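Running this now, will post back.
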Amino acid sequence: MSDIQQAAQELHEQFSDHLDITVDDVEARLDTLVSEYKVPLDEARRSVESHYLEEAGIERDDIGRGGNDTVHVEDVDEPEQWVDITAKVVDLWDPRSDSVAQVGLLGDPTGTIKFTKWAKSDLPELEEGKVYRFGNVVTDEYQGRYSVKLNSTTSIEELDEDIEVGDNAETVEGALVDIQSGSGLIKRCPEEDCTRVLQNGRCSEHGEVDGEFDLRIKGVLDDGNDVHETIFNAESTEELTGIGLEEAKQMAKDALDTTVVADEMREGVLGRYYRVSGPTLGRYVLANDIEELSAPSDAEAVLIKARSM
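Update: finished.
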């Protein structure tokens, strides 16, 4: 998706409740300014935004007020939603791309969530430990991990208060009954600030790239009543299976097939009982701590179930 297409989609989301416009309408206006009149995209976006604000009869200061739901961190469970949120800047990280001004964690009493503030948004600097009211942020999701994006329409108000940040960690246990597709030895996009898993050598964002190997398990724990989807990163995958990245790469090289790694992992862990603890991101529990448990008396039935999935 080009920068113009992304800007068009964001503007369409912003005004679609107020005006009868399509994404193509917005993109055409932006493209005319950028391509024909050589207006920088940031200025073109502001110009198009001002046009729609005037057409809809909306004051710029009202952007992000009144029309959005005010949510807590734990309420973010759907992408491409425009919301307002009050949160504390828990942690700031070094951006890995020039397009990102700031990236880190926001927190409220219900937990924490990643945020990204785009460089082109021209928003004020956020300070770690301070509390802000964010108006008109857009939610995003990648591999079950939800985040919020701060863009040029976002309003930021610093608050003279503190927030006790909650822990959204969860502990689940049960039989590991499935290792899903996309597990084992995988390749990720090497581009900055992108960790997407490649499909047939392609990144959905950056096209064909020379990926970097990684290990991952997307597992399903069944406690007899509920199932819990769990993601194990390279470190926790090695802890769970005993297979490290270099060994996995050698296995795939010897077999000329990367799928042998996931097959070997399945044989070693399916049907066993585990207790997994870690933060919840979307529908997934991220496996930070793993403990193998003694199997109950009906372990054979669980193993049959696991092998039949």
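The mean pLDDT is 84. More later if anyone needs it.
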